[in-house]
Design brief:
Elements: E1 8-11, H1 21-48, H2 55-82, E2 88-90, H3 91-124, H4 129-132, H5 135-161, E3 169-170, H6 177-182, H7 189-222, H8 226-258, H9 266-291, H10 293-316
Parallel strand pairs: 1-3
Antiparallel strand pairs: 1-2
Helix pairs in contact: 1-2, 1-9, 1-10, 2-3, 2-9, 3-5, 3-7, 3-8, 5-7, 8-9, 9-10
Length: 317
């Protein structure tokens, strides 16, 4: 095959799902519907209820929007290929999917870092919270959590877009930057080094900010009253669960990309590769909806209102 002649790729992981493709299709379709509905409900509740128009809830809403973005970036493609006889993806579609998935991942970590900072201010400087977390600052943090990773990854992604490819077999359910670069016709060491530097600015710094925030929260809680400690635990638990859930997915991704996984069953590897793309958008709205009473009450009221409207419509008919 001549250099640069590859303009499409075959996603071989789908061949391992052919035996129960309809079962997998149904499962992924239900996951997609639940993910979108759960995040939309959270957004609608926060938007409609004025008492929830606080920085913490705006950041939750932002996390839900990113969850929908991540779901749409992956699952429609998976559903389409599960029902297809061809597992070939064009180079353009592959590059688009890589950009969307990687920016979703980067934005997610930025939002979680901003939410950690928000909890730090709320617990460590409660008297100055509304002064520090002003409406302008909240808007700036939300904009930064999207623009910064998209621009930084976009600049790095130019290196991938400019490459030519000499192989078209990709052992994945979706396109990944690291896998695509490995199919390049030319040497990739410089590309890999730049990728590590970008990862430091997109992930490591945000992770350090989360650690710093919780180190300060822990320091304050050690000298606080029992009631204050319980309030701190209550307000931080949903965020900590979201961070841990996301960190597990990132750990699976790092393990798969850096270690030999041939001894692990193929379907287990598929599960690991999809974890950080499926479970955070699925569980984040559930975690916040169940853990935070203000949101839980409003979700319950929303369902009661919808139920009453359906009953009224049925009576009118």
């Amino acid at each position: 095959m001549e250099n640069g002649s590859v303009t499409s790729f075959i996603l071989m992981a789908y061949t391992q799902l052919e035996d129960h493709r309809y079962v997998y299709f149904t499962g992924f379709l239900l996951l997609f519907i639940i993910m979108v509905l759960a995040n939309v409900v959270l957004i609608v509740v926060i938007y409609n209820e004025r008492s929830l128009h606080e920085p913490m809830y705006f950041f939750m809403c932002n996390l839900a929007v990113n969850g929908i973005y991540g779901s749409i970036s992956l699952l429609p493609s998976v559903l389409g290929y599960l029902m297809s006889q061809s597992y070939e993806m064009s180079l353009t579609a592959c590059l688009l999917q890589i950009f969307c998935i990687h920016t979703y991942v980067s934005v997610e970590f930025n939002i979680l870092a901003v939410m950690g900072y928000d909890r730090f201010v709320a617990i460590c400087q409660p008297l100055h919270y509304h002064q520090i977390m002003s409406h302008r600052k909240v808007c700036a943090l939300i904009a930064f959590s999207w623009i910064y990773p998209c621009v930084l990854f976009g600049l790095y992604f130019i290196l991938t877009v400019q490459r030519t490819f000499c192989d078209k077999i990709m052992e994945k359910l979706h396109c990944k930057n690291f896998e695509l670069v490995n199919l390049s016709c030319f040497e990739i060491s410089v590309h890999s080094i730049v990728g590590l530097i970008v990862a430091v600015f997109l992930i490591t710094l945000q992770f350090l900010l989360i650690l710093f925030s919780y180190a300060q929260i822990l320091k304050v809680c050690l000298f606080a009253s029992r009631d204050s400690q319980m309030k701190a635990i209550q307000t931080c638990t949903p965020h900590l669960l979201a961070v841990i859930n996301y960190a597990v997915g990132c750990f699976f991704e790092v393990v798969q990309s850096r270690l030999n996984m041939d001894h692990v069953p193929y379907k287990a590897r598929i599960f690991m590769s999809l974890y950080f793309l499926v479970f955070p958008p699925l569980f984040n709205p559930v975690i916040y909806g169940i853990s935070i009473q203000a949101i839980r009450v409003q979700i319950f009221n929303l369902f009661i209102t919808c139920k009453n409207k359906l009953i009224l419509l049925s009576v009118m008919k």
